[in-house]
Write a structure and sequence with these properties.
The structure holds two protein chains of two kinds. Chain A is built from ten helices and no strands. By secondary structure, chain A is mainly alpha-helical. Chain A is globular. Chain B has seven helices and no strands. Classes of the chains: A mainly alpha, B mainly alpha. Chains A and B meet through α5, α8 and α10 of A and α1, α2, α3 and α7 of B.
């Protein structure tokens, strides 16, 4: 009798652990979707910007999701660490800070810190070709990428440490010449609304 | 009595384990995603190399160096160390990637800054209107102001 009960207990334990594991995996997957990000209203402007940016779609025409840049891919420790940190940060800001009045200068620091280079390199494979992969990069680009790859000098910057305003464009950077096209698209959209 | 002691002991162990996990998490986060990447790179501190910023930065941040060269500061050979200080931090100007506007800019531009304050009142910093490496002292914005197609609405 006691042995039977023990066996039941072991089976329930294994089943329970399996259920917890499955729920966890599903939660990790579900909370990485763009739809989940947009369930908080304060994230809407960022999607609006991204949809009008050069990073709206990949080369196959598929929409680029938030997680494709902001969360490391795979299931490794980097992924789990970012999921945990960003998840807790987002909940804390949503509940106890003023999410509509986030200082974007500070927010950019955090966001840039956690954009994994591997995510950029997944699409931009050849660093000596332009973003559309049809021409060589400029002289500046070649020198900077040499340094990034450790071939000529070295730099400890990540991709978004230099490449700023790629998918999002805060108000204070719209006047810059390099962002003129992106800024005018955003402005047209704002006029329409 | 023994059970109380045992619970206390287990509680202590649990607290220590949780604290260790939290500390470990942040140590890992800091290693995997360093907060400051540039200043983590080694700056040479030998007397021959200490103020030759351009030797390396022409490779590492070529755009920035070119912007400086084409700017008014570049034309007048106001070298990096004048605003950014020297990497060993021993000079009179503190070593900083983003120099404090009021202390550093004011060393040369104080009369102009005073006129600005008279006109517009106390200003928070210089950077809001003259962004770091994109201001009128640097090429890209200089082009923008002279070009017929101004991006400003």
């Amino acid at each position: 009798m006691a042995e039977k009960r023990r066996r039941y207990r072991a089976v329930f334990l294994v089943l329970g652990l399996f259920a917890v594991f499955c729920c966890g995996m599903y939660a990790l997957h579900a909370t990485s979707s763009t739809n989940f990000c947009m369930s908080c209203h304060e994230m809407r402007p960022y999607l609006q910007e991204q949809r009008l940016s050069p990073h709206a779609r990949d080369k196959n025409g598929n929409e680029i999701s938030c997680s494709q840049c902001h969360i490391p891919q795979g299931m490794g420790p980097r992924f789990l660490a970012i999921k945990m940190y960003s998840g807790i940060k987002d909940v804390v800001v949503h509940l106890w800070a003023k999410p509509d009045r986030v200082n974007r200068v500070h927010a950019q620091g955090t966001a840039r810190r956690f954009v994994d280079d591997a995510n950029c390199l997944a699409c931009h494979e050849d660093l000596y070709k332009s973003a559309r992969n049809d021409a060589p990069v400029s002289e500046y680009g070649r020198l900077a990428h040499d340094a990034y790859l450790g071939r000529n000098g070295n730099t400890k910057r990540n991709c978004v440490g230099c490449h700023i305003n790629l998918a999002h464009l805060p108000e204070f950077d719209r006047r810059l010449q390099v962002n003129a096209a992106f800024a005018s698209r955003l402005q047209q959209e704002e006029v329409k609304r | 009595m023994a059970t109380v002691k045992k619970t206390l002991f287990i509680g202590m162990i649990l607290i220590i384990l949780i604290a260790a996990a939290v500390v470990g998490f942040f140590v890992y986060l800091d290693k995997a995603f360093p907060k400051v990447r540039c200043e983590a790179a080694k700056h040479p501190t030998t007397p021959e190399a200490i103020s030759d910023c351009v030797a390396c930065h022409a490779k590492v941040t070529p755009m920035l160096v070119q912007d400086w060269k084409d700017s008014k500061h570049g034309a007048l050979l106001v070298k990096c160390v004048v605003c950014h200080g020297e990497p060993d931090g021993k000079g009179s100007i503190p070593f900083a990637a983003k120099p404090g506007a009021k202390e550093i800019c004011a060393r040369c531009h104080e009369p102009a800054m005073n006129r600005m304050v008279e006109k517009l009142g106390e200003l928070k910093d210089c950077e809001t209107c003259h962004p770091r490496h994109q201001n009128s002292l640097h090429r890209s914005a200089f082009e923008a102001t002279t070009a017929a197609s101004n991006t400003e609405p």
